[in-house]
Amino acid sequence: MLFIENLQVAYGKVQALWGVTLDVPQGEIVSLVGANGAGKTTLLKTVSGILRRQAGSITCDGKRIEEASPPEIVKHGVVHVPEGRKLFPEMTVIDNLLMGAYTISQLERPQRLGRVFNVFPVLKERQKQIAGTLSGGEQQMVAIGRGLMAGPKLLMLDEPSLGLAPLLVEEVFRVITEINRSGMTLLLVEQNTQHALSLAHKGFVMELGRIVLSGSGSELLANIDVRKAYLGL
């Protein structure tokens, strides 16, 4: 599905990614974990076309996309749900959701909305509510729902559990698993290492802009270095 090879990215003279290589197989959940500042968000922004790479390649479904614009990347089926939700707080829930559907026809939109409401029934109840008045967990549902409205082949989630209460964290990860079971491929960036690796088919550990470990989710959870550095064990 997604293959990133020798990716290098800088902010001016500050190097952020150093030769990153990773793959996201079709139909799987791949978790990318690491400390703040490791380069995880930079990687997602580069895949989605917000940032430009210095070197390396990004291939999705056999097509090179590293030179494509963000709208072209969305049309190709790669959708990025950003850290911090980035909703339009003065707009209603349904208008926020429809912002994710700008690449699809008017005729398809009701069906897409129906799918989102099946995943998040509370959003159907609150569709006319101003998004900025929702709880943090509900706003995260809107952010994920907006991403789903584009009909992605690959959904990239950046810190979906950030700032949520424990019960809502559990709900977010339940939804991620449900979305994956429907056949969608996911690339998950998450500081909650235990949760992220528990549900991942495959995981990567990033430190200072480099991939330092990879393996199945269970292998990384059992790794003594991962347990010491990220699980406090």
Overview of this structure, please?
The two termini are 34 Å apart. The relative contact order is 0.19. Helix 3 runs parallel beside helix 6 and helix 4 runs antiparallel to helix 6. The protein folds into two domains: 155 residues, P-loop containing nucleotide triphosphate hydrolases (Rossmann fold, 3-Layer(aba) Sandwich), CATH 3.40.50.300; 65 residues, no CATH class. The model has no long low-confidence stretch (mean pLDDT 94). The protein has 233 residues and is an alpha/beta fold. The chain has a six-stranded mixed sheet with strand order 6-7-8-3-9-10, sandwiched between helices. A four-stranded antiparallel sheet has the order 2-1-4-5, covered by helices on one side.
Task: Please outline what is shown here.
The chain has 233 residues and is α/β, with parallel strands linked by helices.
